Amino acid sequence: MSILPTDVLGQLEQQAIELPSWAFGNSGTRFKVFATPGTPRDPFEKIADAAQVHRFTALAPTVALHIPWDKVDDYSALRAHAEEHGVELGTVNSNTFQDDDYKFGALTHEDAAVRRKAIDHHLECIDIMHATGSRDLKIWLAEGSNYPGQADLRGRQDRLHESLQEIYARLGDEQRLVLEYKFFEPAFYHTDVPDWGTSYAQVAALGDKAMVCLDTGHHAPGTNIEFIVMQLLRLGKLGSFDFNSRFYADDDLIVGAADPYQLFRILVEVIRGGGLNNPDVAFMLDQCHNVEDKVPGQIRSVLNVQEMTARALIVDIDALRAAQVSGDVLEANRIFMDAFYTDVRPALGEWRESRGLPADPMAAFAASGYLQQIAADRVGGVQASWGA
Ligand code: PSV
Ligand code: MN
Question: Domain Xylose isomerase-like TIM barrel: where (predicted)?
């Protein structure tokens, strides 16, 4: 028998990981953004690139948009373009972090006129979601303060609740709001949604269609992220993941690159809590490819998630439970580590081939000549980058 039993393969077959449109544009640090030949000039080209990831892996059927970066005149046309390329449009991300008016906050701002503008932006995002067929509105707020005493922490929390209430009230029956937390940056003393507890308190006060988004890069070093995953699943409030990995801050590196074992531990809790292939829990990437090629960077990312999911699925749960119940600490840990150390890559390759996919999607994509083709075709225009 393969190390991946049929029921495990059945679960892997259903796995879907949403790609961020911004991963296909140029990105970098505050020091330099390096351009690459063939980088998309508009959302249509970003979606064409994203479709390549799905074509070679069958893992990425949807693409998230960021507004206004992905603003177009005709969202139905963008939707049709996505469908022609074999993918669908996914989560709509709002953006209240690049406008001068938002220097001191958006949904929390002291000035009602600025709050109005920020709320209206979210209402526009919901209108876009109707045209694109998107279910989720993802809100990440770059709001906070840099110096103690600068801001009225309590007043901002109350205004956040009021603003979110108005946005929530506009959601359609099938739509959801997911509120992302982040403990620092761009504000460095406090942020208004710094942790899962604050996000949970805010979304719980809204209702069933509001959930927490967990970005794996948004925690202090050493945070036990899998514990948060367990707790949010237990509370029925884990709406989505933004997967990426970090060495130092919010590095937005390839998921599973910095700490594969952490990704394994997270996925074990996802499975334990019923979050795998559960429509309530969206798997998304939130990454930037600053120095590596973008399409293969995304292919590697979804494969990393798939591989670690396979390892998490082969944990011998019955034996683990028995060891836990009997207090056999070392045996429980051995069972856990056995699954983590199992090399599932050959079995996954064989399985992909049996489904008509390339055993090695990275190699197959490289051999396809796509990167050379877009470099030759996409001449002129302005490459998409931060802010476009
Ligand atoms: C913020 O760091 C974040 O994680 C949010 O998800 C944004 O929408 C995304 O990055 C892109 O800026
Ligand atoms: Mn994120």
Answer: 73-220
Examine residue 189 and state whether it is found in any structural domain, yes or no.
Answer: yes
Looking at residue 1, what is its pLDDT? 56
Give tens-digit pLDDT for 239-296.
Answer: 999 999 999 999 999 999 999 999 999 999 999 999 999 999 999 999 999 999 999 9
Classify the C-alpha dihedral 321-327-328-334 as positive or negative.
Answer: positive
Please indicate whether residue 250, judged by its CB atom, sits closer than 6 Å to ligand 1.
yes
CA 322, 327, 333, 334 torsion: positive or negative?
A: negative
| DSSP E strand boundaries for 76-157 | 88-93, 136-140, 144-145
Q: Is residue 326 part of a domain?
A: no
Going by alpha carbons, the residue nearest to atom 9 of ligand 1 is: 286
For residue 178, the cross-strand partners are: 138, 211
Q: Whose CA is nearest to atom 7 of ligand 1?
A: 140
Number of the ligand closest to the Cα of 91: 1
Structure confidence at residue 2 (pLDDT)? 82
**What confidence tens digit (pLDDT) does each residue in 39-76 have?**
999 999 999 999 999 999 999 999 999 999 999 999 99
CA distance 84 to 78: 10
Task: Please state, in angstroms and rounded to a whole number, the distance separating the CA atoms of residues 86 and 71.
Answer: 21
Amino acid present at 180: E
Q: Considering the domain boundaries, does residue 324 fall inside one? A: no
Alpha-carbon Rg for the chain in angstroms? 21
**Dihedral of alpha carbons 52, 286, 17, 257, sign:** positive
Q: What percent of the chain has pLDDT over 90?
A: 99
Smallest CA-to-CA distance from 136 within 183, 180, 79, 87 is with 180
User: Is 266 domain-assigned?
Assistant: yes
Ligand 1 centroid distance, CA of 206 (Å): 22
Query: Cis peptide leading into 186, omega within 30 of 0?
Result: yes
Cα of 242 vs centre of ligand 2, distance in Å, is: 5
Cβ contacts of 363 within 8 Å, gap of 6 or more: none
pLDDT of residue 387: 62
- Decide if pLDDT at 386 tops 90: no
| Domain CATH for 236 | 3.20.20.150
* DSSP annotation of 193: S
Our answer on whether the CB atom of 243 is closer than 6 Å to any ligand 1 atom is no
